[in-house]
Amino acid sequence: MIIIKISSVALFILTTLIFLSCSREKTRTVTIGVYYWKTVFELTEEDRDWIKDNTITKIYTRFFDVDWDISNSRALPVGSLKIITNKIPEVEIIPTIFITNKTFLNVPDTSIYDLTTKIFEKIKSQAKTFKSQKIKEIQLDCDWTKKTKDKYFYFIKVIRGFCVNENISLSATVRLHQVKYFDDTGVPPVDRGSLMFYNMSSVSNLETKNSIFDEEIATKYLVNFDTYPLKLDVILPAFSWAVLFSRNKIAGIINDVKFDELDSNGNFEYLKNNLFKVVKDFYFHERYIKKNDIIRVEEISLETTQIAAELIAPYILNDSLVVSIYHLNKEIVQNYGKGDLQNIFSVFH
Fold this sequence. Notes:
Layout: H1 2-27, E1 29-36, E2 40-41, H2 45-53, E3 58-69, E4 74-78, E5 82-83, E6 92-99, H3 101-106, H4 112-127, E7 137-141, H5 149-165, E8 169-175, H6 176-180, H7 182-185, E9 192-196, H8 215-220, E10 232-237, E11 241-246, E12 249-255, H9 259-263, E13 268-272, E14 275-278, E15 282-284, E16 287-289, E17 294-298, H10 302-312, E18 320-326, H11 330-335, H12 338-346
Parallel strand pairs: 1-3, 1-18, 2-5, 3-6, 6-7, 7-8, 8-9, 9-10, 10-18
Antiparallel strand pairs: 3-4, 11-12, 11-17, 13-14, 14-17, 15-16
Helix pairs in contact: 4-5, 10-12
């Protein structure tokens, strides 16, 4: 009798779990997005077809950066977006603003309200260039620290007040360490967070294998998602770059570089672990690099993006979310086809 009773309870629990799982699959809504992180917004016909084929409805578009100008002792916009393609039917443009941590380290408390006002007005002014677009959401991107948390969060509260008055939602990017240690780092006072599931180890350390995505490192940060008080969307990596080192110190990042490009170039000597040594001074991707500089190639493949999606999906608990790819360029259009992206996004349903 005891055995039958335990089996009945176990069966009830199992049936309940299956029912809840099936219910979640039926009700969960996944919206597809992509990030556009260039200084000129111009979509080719191939870009448009890719967006349409993959049912992408949101483009998180970098409008401008905000950085601290040392010479003028004030925060200034940098690299404002030039908009050429100004009409994209059935796709929502989401203004995204990157603000350096250095800005909040230096800006006086008394200047934050004025800075927020100028940023908000610049966003609205720039958004008018897009035809048939109404701002529904603004996203902020800042890798805040304990030293800048209070200023950044105050900035968020001010801009959120402006957004509420105009029926605009506000989101912010969140890094993995800011979820794991949220008791210390704090939770940004926004409507939603967008988890950057990449850039998870030190890019400036020469010994780093791949700072964009490292499954072993990522696994160590998959904690506290069940208690994190902000609903999270997900941003998956789909980009590659080369990290330049001079005298063993980071000297910059060169975007959109693949391993094969360096391996087939006689100006580089392969060392180990995706590390190359520069054998003579020359220009590479419009960047002057010197003999004996070291370049580490960090590459993300379609398979890596799939692994990242499968790893993070079980930890995102809300019933609706946006899953986005970072970022839209020629490489992703050519290598991430309709069926490929459907496989990636399907793990979130």
